[in-house]
C-alpha cells in the first residue's frame, strides 16, 4: 500500500502538458493512413500521414521517429489525445518567420494554391498570401511552372494574432536583378555598341535585354525617319545592335539607340536640297497647321497651311493633300541646327493672279458664276479658283448700285469687263456697267473744245439736262451764259436745240462736261482775234457785228 501510495503521489506530481502547446512524441505504429504517436504522460494520439508531407511530396515518417505535435485536447471521445502535426509545424514555423521578419531575412516556401487576387504559399507549415503583383517583376500569364517549387520569399507583412502573412517573390527577383544590373552596368559605357534581344514592345519604344539588364530603346531613336509604332521595324525575340546613349548610375536605367549607328541624313541636307529647289516627297502626317512631307528617310519638312494653296484659304490641310500622297514641294528655308525644313506646295505652281493678268488684260470681257454677295458688291468666280469683285459703283450706269444688287443671286452667270488686276494684293476688279459701250459710240469724234448741238430734256433750278446722241449731261446754271442776267434755266424749253462747247469727256462716268458760257467766250475770243486788229478803235459791239455779218456772207 505504501508503494502504491508513493506511485499515486508521483503521478499527481507529474505535470500534465497544457492543451494548446507543442509536445514531443514518438511514432509507435502506422496504420490506416495514420501515425499513432505516444506523447508521454500515458497519452497516445493519431495524425494523418498527409500532415507529414510537404506540398507535392510523399510523407516521410516511420515507426520510431520522434516528432513534435500540437496538443489540442488531452482526451477526445475515444479516450485518445487530440493532436496535430500541421498545427505544430505552424507554431514552429511562426516562431521562425517572426524572427526572419524581424531580421528582414528571406524565407523558403512553395506556392501550392491559387486564390482570388494571388496565390497561397506554404512556409514550412504556415500559410502565406502571395499577391499576383508580387509574383514576378512583370505580369505572369501562367504560374504553373512555379507551383510546388521551393523558392525564397520576402515577408512584407505578418500578424500572428490574425494569422495573416503576406510575402513577395518579386522583391527577391528585383534584388537579384539589381545586383545583376549593377554588374552588367559596371561593364557598359556610354557610346558602346552592343547586341541585345527585344523583350517587350510598347507604343513609345522597346525594352532590349543586354544580358541580364534591360535598356529602353525609344521610338524616336530607332530610325532617322518617322516611326509611327515600334512594331514597324522590331519584333519580340529579335536580336538587334544598339548603342548605349545614356546610363543613369542611380536608377540603373539605360537609354539605347539604333539610329545613332547609322549615318545622319541631316549632315547632307543643305547640299542636297538648296533653297528654291523643287523635289518630290511623300506626305507622312497631316495636322491642323500643315502637312509633313518626307524628302528621304530621316528628312522631313513642314508645308505650313499658308504655303499649301494660292486660292484655298482657311482650309484644313487634309482637304488639300492626303497621307502617303506624292507631292512636289519647293524648299523655302533650312535650319540644320533645329533639323527643320520649311517647304512650299503652292510655289511649285504659277501664281494664278499672274496668269490671269497675262491672259486677261484690262478691258477683257469675262464670264463667271456669282460666288458671294456682300453689302459692297459681287464676287464672281473666275478660272483657276480665283474670284473677281464687281463693286456697287460698277454695276450700272443708271441709278445706284445698292438698288440693283438685289437683282443678283448666287449661282447667276454674269459677264463683266476686267478693269484692274493687282497681283500683289491678289485682287481683280470687274465692271458690269463697262459692258455698255454705247457712250463711246455716241461721243466718238467728240473731244474737249468741240462745239456740239444738244437737246434740252429737262429744266431744273440748278440748270438744264440735255442729251446728245443718247448720252445725257447736265449744264449748271453758271454755265448757261456769260451774261449773269441770262443764267436763267427757265429761258429754255424742253426740246430746244442749243449749241454748247465740250469742256470734258469722261468715259468712266459716261459724262460730257458742257457749257454755253464757254462757247460764248470762245466765240468772242475768236471774233476779237479776227476783227479787232484791223479796226483797233472799234467797239466790241462793232467787232461782233462785223463777225456776225461775216458769218452771214
TrEMBL record:
The record's Gene Ontology cellular component field reads: cytosolic small ribosomal subunit
Entry-linked Pfam families: S1 (PF00575)
**Keywords of this protein's UniProt record, alphabetized?**
Repeat, Ribonucleoprotein, Ribosomal protein, RNA-binding
The record's listing under PROSITE patterns reads: S1
Q: Name one GO biological process term.
A: translation
Indicate the segments forming the S1 motif domain, all copies.
Answer: 20-86, 104-170, 191-259, 276-346, 363-433, 449-517
Its domain of life?
Bacteria
Output one GO MF annotation. Answer: structural constituent of ribosome
Does the record carry Protein biosynthesis as a key word? no
What InterPro entries does this protein's entry cite?
Answer: NA-bd_OB-fold, Ribos_protein_bS1-like, Ribosomal_bS1, Ribosomal_protein_S1-like, S1_domain
Described function: Binds mRNA; thus facilitating recognition of the initiation point. It is needed to translate mRNA with a short Shine-Dalgarno (SD) purine-rich sequence.
UniProt xrefs under PANTHER family: 30S RIBOSOMAL PROTEIN S1, SMALL RIBOSOMAL SUBUNIT PROTEIN BS1C
In the record, the note on similarity to other proteins reads: Belongs to the bacterial ribosomal protein bS1 family.
User: What is this protein's name?
Assistant: 30S ribosomal protein S1
Source species of the chain:
Brevirhabdus pacifica
Amino acid at each position: 500500500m505504501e508503494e502504491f501510495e508513493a506511485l499515486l503521489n508521483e503521478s499527481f506530481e507529474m505535470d500534465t502538458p497544457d492543451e494548446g502547446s507543442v509536445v514531443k512524441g514518438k511514432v509507435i505504429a502506422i496504420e490506416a493512413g495514420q501515425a499513432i504517436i505516444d506523447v508521454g504522460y500515458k497519452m497516445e494520439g493519431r495524425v494523418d500521414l498527409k500532415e507529414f508531407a510537404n506540398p507535392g511530396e510523399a510523407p516521410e515518417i516511420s515507426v520510431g521517429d520522434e516528432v513534435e505535435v500540437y496538443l489540442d485536447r488531452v482526451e477526445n471521445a475515444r479516450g485518445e489525445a487530440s493532436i496535430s502535426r500541421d498545427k505544430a509545424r505552424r507554431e514552429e514555423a511562426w516562431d521562425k518567420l517572426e524572427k526572419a521578419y524581424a531580421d528582414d531575412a528571406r524565407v523558403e516556401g512553395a506556392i501550392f494554391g491559387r486564390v482570388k487576387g494571388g496565390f497561397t504559399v506554404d512556409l514550412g507549415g504556415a500559410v502565406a498570401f502571395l499577391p499576383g503583383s508580387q509574383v514576378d517583376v512583370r505580369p505572369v500569364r501562367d504560374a504553373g511552372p512555379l507551383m510546388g517549387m521551393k523558392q525564397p520569399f520576402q515577408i512584407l507583412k505578418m500578424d500572428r494574432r490574425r494569422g495573416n502573412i503576406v510575402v513577395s517573390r518579386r522583391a527577391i527577383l528585383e534584388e537579384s536583378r539589381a545586383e545583376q544590373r549593377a554588374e552588367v552596368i559596371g561593364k557598359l559605357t556610354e557610346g558602346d555598341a552592343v547586341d541585345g534581344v527585344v523583350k517587350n514592345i510598347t507604343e513609345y519604344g522597346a525594352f532590349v535585354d543586354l544580358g541580364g539588364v534591360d535598356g529602353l530603346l525609344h521610338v524616336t531613336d530607332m530610325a532617322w525617319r518617322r516611326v509611327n509604332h515600334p512594331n514597324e521595324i522590331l519584333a519580340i525575340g529579335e536580336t538587334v545592335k544598339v548603342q548605349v546613349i545614356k546610363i543613369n548610375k542611380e536608377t540603373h536605367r539605360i537609354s539605347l539607340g539604333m539610329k545613332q549607328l547609322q549615318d545622319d541624313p541631316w549632315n547632307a541636307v543643305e547640299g542636297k536640297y538648296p533653297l528654291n529647289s523643287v523635289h518630290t516627297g511623300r506626305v507622312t502626317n497631316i495636322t491642323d497647321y500643315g502637312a509633313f512631307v518626307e524628302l528621304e528617310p530621316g528628312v522631313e519638312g513642314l508645308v505650313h497651311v499658308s504655303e499649301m494653296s494660292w486660292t484655298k484659304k482657311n482650309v484644313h490641310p487634309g482637304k488639300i493633300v492626303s497621307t502617303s500622297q506624292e507631292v512636289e514641294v519647293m524648299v523655302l528655308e533650312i535650319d540644320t541646327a533645329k533639323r527643320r525644313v520649311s517647304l512650299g506646295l503652292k510655289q511649285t505652281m504659277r501664281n494664278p493672279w499672274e496668269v490671269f493678268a497675262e491672259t486677261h488684260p484690262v478691258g477683257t470681257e469675262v464670264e463667271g458664276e456669282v460666288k458671294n454677295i456682300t453689302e459692297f458688291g459681287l464676287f464672281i468666280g473666275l478660272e483657276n479658283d480665283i474670284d473677281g469683285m464687281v463693286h456697287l459703283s460698277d454695276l450700272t450706269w443708271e441709278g445706284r448700285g445698292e438698288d440693283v444688287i438685289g437683282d443678283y443671286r448666287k449661282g447667276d452667270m454674269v459677264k463683266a469687263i476686267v478693269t484692274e488686276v493687282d497681283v500683289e494684293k491678289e485682287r481683280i476688279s470687274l465692271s458690269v456697267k463697262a459692258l455698255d459701250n454705247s457712250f463711246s459710240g455716241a461721243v466718238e469724234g467728240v473731244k474737249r473744245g468741240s462745239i456740239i448741238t444738244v437737246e434740252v430734256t429737262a429744266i431744273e433750278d440748278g440748270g438744264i439736262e440735255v442729251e446728245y446722241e443718247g448720252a445725257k449731261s447736265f449744264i449748271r446754271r453758271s454755265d448757261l451764259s456769260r451774261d449773269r442776267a441770262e443764267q436763267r434755266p427757265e429761258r429754255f424749253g424742253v426740246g430746244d436745240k442749243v449749241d454748247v462747247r465740250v469742256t470734258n469727256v469722261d468715259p468712266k462716268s459716261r459724262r460730257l462736261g458742257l457749257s454755253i458760257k464757254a462757247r460764248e467766250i470762245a466765240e468772242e475770243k475768236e471774233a476779237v482775234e479776227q476783227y479787232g486788229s484791223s479796226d483797233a478803235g472799234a467797239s466790241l459791239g462793232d467787232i461782233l457785228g462785223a463777225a456776225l455779218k461775216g458769218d452771214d456772207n
